[in-house]
Amino acid sequence: MEKFKEEAILKLFEKGLITENQFEEIKTYRSLNIFSLNAELKLFLYLSVLLFTSGIGILIYENIDTIGHVAILSLLLIVIVVCFYYCFKNSKGFQKTETTFEHPVLEYLVLAGNILTCIFIGYLQFQYRPFGEHYGLATLVPTIVSFFCAYYFDNRSVLTIAITGLAAYVGLSVTPQDIFNDSNNLYANQNLSYSAVMLGILLILWTVYSRRISLKTHFGLVFLTFALHIISIASISNLTNYDTITWMIFALIIGCSSYYFYKISYEYKAMSLYVFTIVYAFIGVNIFLFRIFENVDFFRIWELFIFLLPAYFIGTIVMFIKLIKNFHKEIAE
Question: What residues form the membrane-spanning segments (predicted)?
């Protein structure tokens, strides 16, 4: 890593982007071996929020009969009001461009307030059913609140909650264990699979529109990441469908999706998008080839097939590493 940084600085100097004096100052600063604890401190703040909200949930679960529903809801509401009061008081207001709080703790206060709001609405619906039998509204309302908080306070963590809530409202399972389960609705319900693909496309279209009007363009990577996973997982889970037309449609979908995200990963210079695109494409291609040759009798050439199989996997690993290196080299230039 240090060698890479030195080479990067040297390239900047050779291209004339920095002066000789600046080059020497950077080298001197690097030699001091000073490192920042900013990432570590933010990680502890994030863990603190998760532990606090988890503790609230455990407190409600273990003392629900002794504390009382009204007392629990009142306590949650007080904490939520306090969190958002300080956030609104210290925020710069809504802006289309990227903004930050002067103190990073307030960003995690927004996250805590948002999570507690979701808990409050969910608990309120479970106990008193203000939305009646329309349980989808109990998901949609905190999702709308999360989107508002994400855009108003410019918070990516809250944005992930909002998109997850939107996926839950559509009816998608968002955990890998549920998605690849044999009883998962994505496999059993074709309409839900198409809904997942449509949700992914809508996230992509919103990203394109946001870039056109310059609205929180830095949120684009979050939307695209969700879109990639949703479309790819929905497609892969249906490639094993017994209906020929269905699995061929989803093979076409994952093919188009992989091509789009391959191109967009270069545009955003996003290593995460690129890696997952390659992984999903590899899985999709292998399942597709298996479906094409599933009726072919390999009995006479099974020895050749077993001999070539290790070479195939080794070759794909080598190709994968080469692709990652080339991508890293191209986005670094």
Answer: 43-61, 67-88, 108-128, 134-153, 158-180, 192-209, 221-239, 245-262, 274-293, 299-321
